[in-house]
Design a protein that fits this description.
Elements: H1 14-28, E1 34-38, E2 51-61, E3 64-74, E4 81-86, H2 88-91, E5 98-99, E6 102-103, H3 107-124, E7 131-135, H4 136-140, H5 142-150, E8 160-165, E9 173-174, H6 179-182, E10 195-196, E11 199-201, H7 202-209, E12 212-215, H8 218-223, H9 227-230, H10 234-239, E13 244-246, H11 273-287, E14 298-305, H12 311-316, H13 318-321, E15 327-334, H14 336-348, E16 353-357, H15 361-370, E17 373-376, H16 386-393, E18 396-400, H17 403-408, H18 414-418, E19 425-427, H19 432-445, H20 449-460, H21 466-482
Parallel strand pairs: 1-4, 7-8, 8-12, 12-13, 14-15, 14-17, 15-16, 17-18, 18-19
Antiparallel strand pairs: 2-3, 3-4, 5-6, 9-11, 10-11
Helix pairs in contact: 1-21, 3-5, 5-7, 11-15, 16-20
Bound molecules: adenosine-5'-diphosphate (ADP) and alpha-D-glucopyranose (GLC).
Alpha-D-glucopyranose binds next to helix 1.
């Protein structure tokens, strides 16, 4: 498992949760998993930084050869060895990819290094994986590197690559000059291989060369073959359609489980949800300085504050929901304009709106448990994890019908209510009116306790664990091996 981030070593988003959740589930199912990750010195807690192995790898980068040192660590509560690639020049930084809003100018070089160093680690430690599973643009290049340069190397002849696409909006699109650093032959710089409108596109290269492609929900697997969601890669994804599978992410139930969540005042199950959530709501209102009123429906949001996450809809409808009989709690960071918008709204209605700009695991858990409605109006959402946490915590998700949101939340209708499948509130057009109408409907439904309990029950009885999704990945791995 090769990734640029994985919890608990380093995390910027869902990618880190997924890499670890899947690895653990594979481990539990009896497969032998190793992780290869950068050693992000400022993010990896010291007790997880492992031991130096004393071994170095040399990664060719253009005419240079760049050395990285390998540390060996362990993913807690697993049999999984994590090889951490230590190169302070590349990875001892204040951010993983971005600093002060701008991408690091040497990101291409950093992640070419990571991909090459990972393949060298396989060599140095005699890892002979059946599958090299890579994630997103940061490690996508390992797929062409394996098939063009490393396939014949000791032990990697039969290794097959799988690339998981977590978000097509980030592709690693770099000037042509970067090609030289990769060591890949110039002849491959053509429109059907590495080239993308004159640039070298890491994600496209991965899409072309990986033996199998997966993405993180069935709906997104289809969406990305269309211009609206493919960000220019829809053509290559259609071309590779037979090799592309959508598998819904699971939830890491070690960390997200209301029955044993250390961040809640009182853990709860489907049988004690009413009391458990009431306690959590009260704690949440206190923590965020809102009026401790149990009757007002409370809406929560935990998110990167970007356009992807539907913040423009929240902004466009603010004047309307601000006067609704409800409370709102926002936790996130991202684009400055959204940070300002939310803190301004909180200032205008301090007993009903709270906004905390920043990143906080404990608060994210408390919001998932204490809110009544969880807002996820994303413009696009490859999978999304928070709506699944919400389902498990008896918090009703309100979502736009895209990607993994469409696959994990079932809209409340008379039929779905009768069939006990309704789990949330879904809007279909990405417009301010549709969002606001659905929000109003959700707030009104809160007053109907029978329907509310049914929604909670249905959500809380879903199996969202990784075990099932991991089985689907194993099928993909087997298909990749069969194609050898
Ligand atoms: P994405 O990876 O696109 O940001 P996901 O829903 O897949 O979206 O995953 C986001 C993850 O990051 C979740 O685990 C969520 O709880 C967490 N997260 C996002 N923002 C914050 C925040 N401000 N504080 C705490 N956790 C956050
Ligand atoms: C990306 C997507 C998110 C998904 C996560 C993990 O960050 O934006 O929808 O849940 O990857 O796969």
């Amino acid at each position: 498992m090769l990734s640029s981030e994985a919890v608990p070593f380093a995390k910027t988003g869902g990618l880190a949760d997924v890499v670890t959740g899947l690895s653990r589930a594979l481990d539990r199912a009896g497969h032998e998993v190793a992780m290869i990750l950068p050693y992000h010195r400022r993010f990896t807690p010291p007790e997880l930084a492992g031991e130096p192995t004393g071994r170095a790898v040399q990664a060719p980068l253009g005419r240079q050869s760049v050395q990285g040192w390998i540390r060996r660590s362990q993913l807690p509560d697993s049999r999984i060895t994590a090889y951490l690639i230590d190169h302070p020049g590349y990875f001892d930084r204040s951010g993983l990819y971005v600093d002060g809003g701008a991408d690091y100018p040497d990101n291409a070089e950093r992640f070419i290094f990571l991909s090459r160093a990972a393949l060298e680690v396989c060599d140095a430690f005699q890892l002979r994986p059946d599958i090299l599973h890579v994630h997103d643009w940061q490690t996508a290049l390992a797929a062409p590197l394996l098939s063009v340069l490393y396939r014949r190397r000791n032990g990697l002849q039969t290794t097959r690559s799988v690339l998981t696409l977590h978000n097509l909006a980030f592709q690693g699109n770099f000037p042509r000059a970067v090609l030289e650093l990769t060591g890949l032959p110039v002849e491959l710089f053509t429109w059907d291989k590495l080239e993308f409108w004159g640039n070298l596109n890491f994600l496209k290269a991965g899409c072309v060369y990986a033996d199998r492609l997966t993405t993180v929900s069935p709906t997104y697997a289809w969406e990305i073959t269309t211009p609206a969601f493919g960000w220019g890669l829809e053509g290559v994804l259609r071309h590779r359609g037979a090799a592309l599978t959508g598998i819904l992410n699971g939830v890491d139930t070690e960390h997200w489980n209301p029955a044993r969540d250390p961040y809640l005042p009182q853990p709860y199950t489907i049988h004690t949800v009413e009391q458990g959530k009431a306690r959590a709501k009260e704690a949440l209102q206190r923590e965020f300085g809102l009026a401790p009123d149990p009757r007002l429906p409370l809406c929560g949001l935990v998110s990167r504050l970007t356009d992807q996450k539907g913040l423009d809809l929240i902004a466009a409808t603010a004047e309307q929901w601000l006067t609704a009989p409800a409370q709102f709690i926002f936790l996130g960071s991202g684009e400055r304009r959204y940070e300002t918008l939310l803190t301004d709204l909180a200032r205008r209605a301090p007993d009903r709106v709270a906004a905390v700009i920043g990143y906080s695991e404990p608060r994210a858990h408390l919001i998932e448990a204490g809110a009544d409605i969880f807002l996820m109006p994303s413009r696009f959402e490859p999978c999304g994890l928070n709506q699944m946490y919400s389902l498990m915590y008896g918090t009703i998700p309100l979502v736009h019908a895209v990607g993994g949101l469409a696959d994990s939340v079932t809209n409340l209708t008379p039929d779905t209510l009768a069939q006990n499948t309704a789990t949330g509130f879904v809007f279909y057009d990405y417009t301010a009116d549709a969002f606001l109408g659905t929000l109003r409907w959700g707030l009104a439904t809160y007053q109907n306790r029978d329907v509310w309990r049914a929604l909670q029950r249905n959500g809380m009885s879903q199996d969202l664990s990784w075990a099932r999704s991991a089985e689907r990945y194993v099928e993909v791995y087997r298909a990749a091996l069969a194609s050898a």
